[in-house]
Amino acid sequence: MSAAPLEQMRTAGLRIGGEDRPASDGATYPVANPATGAVVARAADAGREDVARAVAAASAAFRAGTWRRTPAPQRGEVLAAAAERIEARADELARLESLCTGKPISDCLAEVRGAARYFRFYGAAVNHLTGQTIPVSNTGLDFTLREPIGVCALIVPWNGPIAIAAKKTAPALAAGNSVILKPAPATPLTALELADICAAAGVPAGVLSVLTGASRELGQELVAHPDVAKISFTGSTETGADILRRAAAGIKRVSLELGGKSPNVVFADSDISQVAQSAISAVFANSGQDCCARSRMIVERPAFGQFVETLAALAGQVRQGDPLDPGTRLGSLISAGQRDRVLGFIDRAVAGGAELVCGGQVVRRPGLEAGNAITPTVLTGADPDSEVATSEVFGPVATILPFDDEDEAIALANGTRYGLSGSLWTRDIGRAIRVGREIRSGLLSINSDSSSYIQAPFGGYGQSGLGKEQGLEGLHDFTEVKNIYVSDQ
Fold first, then answer.
1. How far is it, in rounded angstroms, from Cα 443 to Cα 187?
2. For 395-423, what is the mean pLDDT?
């Protein structure tokens, strides 16, 4: 599959024990382009027997110890080699990603390159996977080791398939674990390619497997398997809660990167044109299908009208079209179901008294024939506690709320069950510090909408999740700490 052009692809198999295999019962399912509706591949539809095979292969590889006993610098060299292979195939991988997600090809190319950076970063970071020597109340030596956990199930979503797969896979492998990667049903192809790339780079057979499948039960089987020691999941808060319940019986290690309704707090002393220009990407990129989307916009009243007018004007200029066109900035939502979900949010908001300033229209044009694209949408007049202002829409919808003072801005910023990300715009450094400290979110950017960097920890407060990804914290999250005391007697 790796070397074949897309036009020759018919069925994509599972990756188990270093082999390309069909599902145990031969079942497959179609993978469709959400922008056009065309089927681009068929993928193996894994079931319970395939989960058992993958976990058995991963467990055997971990017990054998070939990978976990490989010195950390050598594991790092393998990850660096994988990064080089990802970069060498960037155009091909980006095209696959665009065909499965409906994302603009330029965005997909950036995410493929991001995936390579994750492998390169953790290939180097593993050299810093160190323990400590600890003074204790006895003679001798006390020290700690960081050891791999075991078999790790990595469950990734459809909104950033290869980048999020790399964000989880690279540190898990760097730490010496065995990995079973489960991509979302709609976007399996780049995960399979990633497994092939890692194998070619030197990851031993059985250490990295990929299970594709159309059913929700596949992930549930994987989570519940007694030999899976660690689960890392990115997706909805509701599914994250279900994973916690299923993992509890085995006291499994769990990290969750879940939903968000990230605030964008704008004070009137900001450069409103700059903030609005930045907000176009912060809210509408990936058609709003981003857990960090700054979709709860909180604007100081003196600047409210100007901000709404400027943002709406810019939203109307966003180039929306064929995702494979390098000039396209906005593509398709992932499915008709997601389109209808987003339209439902908009309709209910307007029925509840919100004003539809712009957008909310279905787009059908060349490259977007499936009708799953929605124009960038701006709403005002919604109640701060309303559904559209507090729930994750996961579509190109900005809800703009006014505020009068710092205390109200903070209350509005913290007025949801989430706490993943956010932005704060002001020229007053004292205000930035005061308000920034009070906003309850795992990531916050001041006078910027960029807050996620590979080198820095990523993770939220509240119902936005558990644990941290990225940075050294992301590597530590795939380890257990062992304390050893050695007597000098």
1. 27
2. 98
Cβ(343)–Cβ(333) below 8 Å: no
Query: Does 257 participate in catalysis according to the annotation?
Result: yes
In whole angstroms, give the CA distance from residue 26 to residue 234: 28
Q: What angle do CA 201, 222, 239 make, to 5 degrees?
A: 110
Q: One of 97, 221, 392, 469 is an active-site residue; which one?
A: 469
* Catalytic-role residue among 108, 152, 291, 358: 291
pTM higher than 0.70: yes
Residues sharing a CB contact under 8 Å with residue 260, sequence separation 6 or more, in sequence order: 291, 292, 293, 392, 418, 419, 420, 421, 460, 464
From the candidates 167, 168, 182, 252, give the one annotated as an active-site residue.
168
Distance of CA 250 to CAs 223, 226, 255, 266, 383, Å?
Answer: 10, 7, 15, 45, 43
| Residue 135, C-beta contacts closer than 8 angstroms, at least 6 positions apart | 142
Find the catalytic residue in 97, 221, 257, 392.
257
**Contact of 22 with 47, CB cutoff 8 Å:** no
Q: How far apart are CA 469 and CA 406, in angstroms?
A: 31
| pLDDT more than 70, % of the chain | 98
168 is catalytic: yes
Residue with tokens 């993928």: 43
Please check whether residue 141 is in contact with residue 444, taking contact to mean a CB–CB distance below 8 angstroms.
no
Of 464, 467, 469, 466, the residue nearest 259 (C-alpha): 464
**Helices of type H across 102-255:** 105-125, 161-174, 189-201, 216-224, 237-248
- Give residue 5's pLDDT: 45
Distance CA(479)–CA(489), nearest Å, equals: 31
